[in-house]
């Protein structure tokens, strides 16, 4: 392989005529950063030009998030992040793998509502197991924070929308196009291992982070990665993700990965005791051994219960498209097809 062209082709292109999975992952990350930056610039420009949107220029403090302006800032930020993830996923899926955005995981395939509903129940139940273990060990106690129906319904709506959007965004980033590129070329086990580690490291700057919280976040990445592999869509993973966080914040009034942004909307208010190795302390349940047990149980249930299987529609959708041959006119009226496909059978090798 002395020809520089062959060397370059080997470095960048695999046997399917696609960029190797590592380059596709890098392309997605670059695309996401560029789109997110452009949307942030557009938001700032709109806030500068229109005084009524001036609240978007300054991030609210923790105590200001529940004001109308604070909630609007939170909503716009969440929507902007989701838009960046959707646009980046759609562009990369189409350009690099010749498939559409729906194939990345949010296609309305047969059984998607079932996956989402059961996943939402399982996510909340998994968090409840962790809280139950901590409460049984007297590591957490609770009192009622909100009793009035009106504020409770308002909080339920706000928390639901916030965590669904945030969960969908994180799943597109961590179990979407980039993860699926690794699955396609490296296999599910290695893809889950790589992305779970990155998922854990991505939370390392959160408030009150600990070594235990990072380990549990890696385990949560495994939990959500298995959910994708069992269904080949993102509905189940997103349902688990949002409902776990929703139950933690709204139902039990506990920190979510170190953040207490929506704590004032909660039904209950959790108080942690001295056994922080069980409860997770100020980081929340995800930094305690109770969450470790709950995540392991839930992962095994998803994997071994037989409740989840990929639909035929999604199995067909995730297949990568083939390059169309290019036609070059050699002489008028005499067109010769020249294939841009390198030839040979498709391979899943890197």
Can you put this structure into words, describing what you see?
This protein is mostly helical and 350 residues long. It has a domain of 231 residues. It is 59% helix and 6% strand. The chain has a two-stranded antiparallel ribbon with strand order 1-2. The radius of gyration is 23 Å and the shape is globular. The two termini are 18 Å apart. 41% of the residues are buried. The C terminus is likely disordered.
Low-confidence stretches: 326-350
Q: For the report, how would you describe the main beta sheet?
A: 2 strands, antiparallel
Derived from helix and strand composition plus strand pairing, the structural class reads: mainly alpha
Give the C-alpha Rg: 23 Å
Mean pLDDT: 90
Order of helices and strands: HHHHEHHHHHEHHHEE
Strand order of the largest sheet: 1-2
What is the global morphology?
A: globular
Specify the number of helices: 12
**What separation lies between the terminal Cα atoms?**
18 Å
- Total number of strands: 4
Percentage of β-strand residues:
5-15%
Helix fraction bin? 55-70%
Give the key terms.
4 strands, mainly alpha, two-stranded antiparallel ribbon, 6% strand, 59% helix, single chain, disordered C terminus, 350 residues
């Amino acid at each position: 392989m002395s020809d520089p062209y062959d060397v370059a082709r080997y470095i960048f292109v695999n046997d399917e005529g696609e960029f190797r999975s590592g380059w596709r992952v890098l392309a997605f990350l670059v695309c996401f950063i560029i789109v997110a930056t452009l949307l942030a610039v557009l938001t700032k420009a709109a806030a500068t030009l229109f005084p009524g949107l001036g609240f978007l220029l300054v991030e609210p403090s923790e105590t200001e998030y529940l004001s109308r302006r604070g909630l609007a800032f939170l909503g716009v930020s969440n929507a902007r992040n989701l838009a960046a993830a959707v646009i980046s996923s759609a562009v990369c899926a189409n350009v690099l793998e010749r498939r559409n955005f729906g194939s990345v995981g949010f296609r309305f395939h047969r059984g998607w509502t079932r996956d989402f509903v059961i996943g939402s129940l399982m996510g909340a139940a998994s968090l409840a197991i962790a809280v139950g273990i901590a409460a049984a060990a007297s590591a957490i106690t609770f009192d009622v924070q909100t009793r009035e129906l009106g504020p409770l319904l308002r909080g339920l709506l706000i928390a639901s929308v916030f965590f669904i959007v945030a969960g969908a965004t994180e799943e597109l980033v961590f179990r979407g196009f980039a993860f699926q590129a690794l699955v396609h070329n490296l296999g599910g086990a290695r893809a889950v291992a790589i992305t779970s580690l990155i998922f854990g490291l991505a939370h390392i700057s959160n408030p009150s982070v600990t070594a235990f919280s990072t380990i549990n976040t890696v385990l949560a990445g495994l939990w959500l990665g298995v959910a994708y592999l069992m269904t080949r869509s993102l509905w189940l993973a997103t349902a688990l993700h949002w409902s776990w966080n929703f139950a933690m914040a709204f139902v039990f009034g506990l920190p979510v990965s170190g953040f207490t942004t929506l704590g004032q909307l909660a039904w209950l208010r959790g108080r942690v005791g001295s056994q922080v190795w069980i409860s997770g302390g100020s980081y929340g349940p995800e930094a305690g051994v109770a969450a470790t047990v709950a995540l392991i149980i839930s992962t095994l249930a998803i994997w071994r219960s037989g409740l989840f299987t990929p639909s035929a529609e999604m199995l067909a959708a995730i297949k990568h498209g083939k390059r169309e041959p290019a036609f070059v006119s050699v002489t008028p009226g005499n067109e010769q097809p020249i294939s841009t496909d390198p030839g040979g059978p498709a391979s899943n090798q890197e």
